[in-house]
Write a structure and sequence with these properties.
The chain has 517 residues and is an alpha/beta fold. It contains 17 helices and 11 strands. The strands form 3 sheets. The protein has a 5-stranded mixed β-sheet, with helices on both faces. Helix 11 packs antiparallel against helix 12. The structure holds zinc ion.
């Protein structure tokens, strides 16, 4: 028997085989076995046994078997054999995680890094107390004063079509009042993030070499432009002639994250009254361990959160107070939510897989489903505003009936994949056709998926975050940036005010309302 094509083997049914002679059946069986072997090998190929990149591996597989990751106690036990001379600067590693061979950062005893560049100061800023601390009398410029402390601040000035780095000396003065009391001006201190047994906690402070606009610029390069700390350092030195250490760069990015956290809490509280929210999630890695990046998109906010894939993470974004509509994919955590629109794009993709694969009658079912679902989306879009007596309305009713009937006919198909899709649609029927009745609802989850694009690219470039704190800060920072972008307001002017307020401990400015532009 001649060599059979994939289509001939996969397309064969009982009738084809019965018509074959014995030698033909033997040859058919051998060729089919060979084909199954070849495909099984292809399916089993991953980054560990082929030239495929690790990014093509399933995230679940990576979480279990990968060398970089460990979720159980086995690897941790071997990690306990850490030398007694281990530096105290070692980052805190949660229980059950493999310890890295070397902690990040400088080895103890190695020479430190400091600026080789002298700071050329272009001006001075005097900070004088405005009123007496004892009698509250106004302290004029004529009162005797002395300089108590001073520090240099390098900041970025943002002009029209211009960026300029400038350094200023900030002097803090003590002023004596007529009553005899001396009031001392001091740099403010603000928000802090403390983690036990960490050598140096993050404490926001006005006495800082990097001014709020420059800190914002550095944070923008990290969270929006997806540059690594090292690349940002290189950029500042090569293009602005500014030498900052990687630790300083990192601090600026963390300052923005910490300053953004209270804004995110406010946004989450505010979106509970939204009419419509798109939700989606994508894998995220924290020190190689699989986490999930969730996104919730409403008309005026884009909120990110890194957590587990469970219902608890979902509940952090969508509380019981949320009464609006959710647009989601088919993930089970969403299923018990009553007012829900299922993303049709996901179902169409599954139907395309059936249509293009070898599923006998199932392929025809897939083709019909792709056609009918696409047509349904088009018809509903045409039917806006809905008109019950319209011809389009009747066509929509016919389409819905046909989709349902098709699924009912195929829910007992011999092929598991065909059966599964038919049942999935029937089980989630109300969520699939919700958008037909409500013109407010989109048929797909594109808004949330588009919001995740940025995060997916950041994950591919930066391999995720390393600590719980880093994950929280990153999610908070991109929430502020994306929400500002959604509202068509300048994220960076707001971020600057946010950092400046967090450094002095004053209440954070409100996130600007959507701009009309
Ligand atoms: Zn006084």
């Amino acid at each position: 028997m001649a060599k059979l094509t994939v289509a001939e083997i996969a397309g064969a049914d009982a009738e084809t085989v019965t018509r074959m002679s014995r030698p033909e059946v033997d040859s058919f069986a051998l060729q089919a076995a060979e084909m199954v072997r070849r495909f099984a090998n292809q399916v089993a190929a991953d980054s560990s046994n082929s030239s495929r990149p690790p990014s093509s591996d399933s995230p679940y597989q990576r979480d279990q078997g990968g060398k970089a990751v460990c979720g159980d106690g086995r690897e941790a036990a071997s990690g306990e054999a850490k030398p007694a001379t281990a530096p105290q600067t070692a980052p805190v590693i949660p229980q059950g995680e493999k310890k890295p061979e070397k902690p990040s950062g400088k080895r103890p005893g190695m020479p430190g890094f400091w600026r080789r560049q002298p700071i050329v100061v272009q001006g001075e800023v005097a900070h004088r107390p405005g009123e007496c601390g004892a009698c509250h009398a106004t302290l004029g410029a004529d009162k005797p004063s002395r300089l108590v402390s001073a520090h240099n601040v390098i900041d970025l000035e943002r002009g029209d079509m211009a960026l300029q780095i400038s350094a200023k000396k900030h002097g803090f003065f003590a002023v004596r009042c007529d009553c005899g009391h001396e009031t001392i001006a001091a740099p403010g201190t603000g928000a802090s993030s403390r983690i036990e047994s960490r050598k140096r906690d993050l404490l926001l402070n006005e006495r800082c070499l990097v001014g709020p606009m420059l800190a914002t610029f550095i944070a923008a390069m990290a969270v929006r432009m997806r540059l690594s700390r090292e690349k940002i350092r290189e950029f500042l030195l090569d293009w602005l002639g500014l030498e900052l250490s990687k630790a300083t760069v990192n601090r600026c990015i963390h300052e923005f994250g910490l300053a953004s956290e209270p804004v995110v809490e406010e946004l989450i509280a505010a979106v509970q009254s939204a009419e419509l929210a798109n939700l989606d999630e994508t894998p995220w890695y924290q020190k190689g361990k699989l986490r999930w990046m969730w996104v919730m998109v409403t008309a005026t906010a884009v909120i990110f959160r890194i957590g587990s894939r469970g219902k608890d993470s979902l509940a952090e974004l969508v509380s019981e107070a949320f009464l609006g509509w959710l647009v989601t994919d088919g993930y089970m955590a969403y299923r018990n939510y009553p007012r829900r629109q299922r993303c049709l794009a996901h179902l169409i993709r599954k139907a395309v897989a059936l249509a293009e694969g070898y599923y006998h009658n199932g392929s025809g079912f897939g083709r019909d489903l792709v056609r009918d679902l696409r047509r349904l989306i088009e018809r509903v879009a045409e039917n806006d505003p809905p008109n019950r007596d319209d011809k389009t309305h009747k066509a929509i009713k016919r389409l819905i009936a046909r989709i349902k009937w098709n699924c009912q006919c195929n829910q007992y198909d011999i092929d598991a994949k065909v059966r599964a899709l038919a049942r999935e649609i029937l089980n989630d029927w109300d969520a699939i056709i919700a958008f037909v009745m409500d013109p407010l609802l989109p048929a797909t989850n594109n808004d949330a998926e588009r919001a995740l694009r940025h995060v997916v690219l950041a994950r591919l470039i930066g391999f995720g975050t390393r600590t719980d704190e880093g994950s929280r800060f990153y999610a908070a920072a991109i929430t502020v940036v994306e929400t500002c972008r959604k509202r068509k307001v300048d994220p960076w002017a707001y971020a600057r005010d946010l950092i400046a307020a967090a450094r002095t401990g004053t209440p954070h400015p409100k996130i600007p309302a959507p701009s009309a532009a």
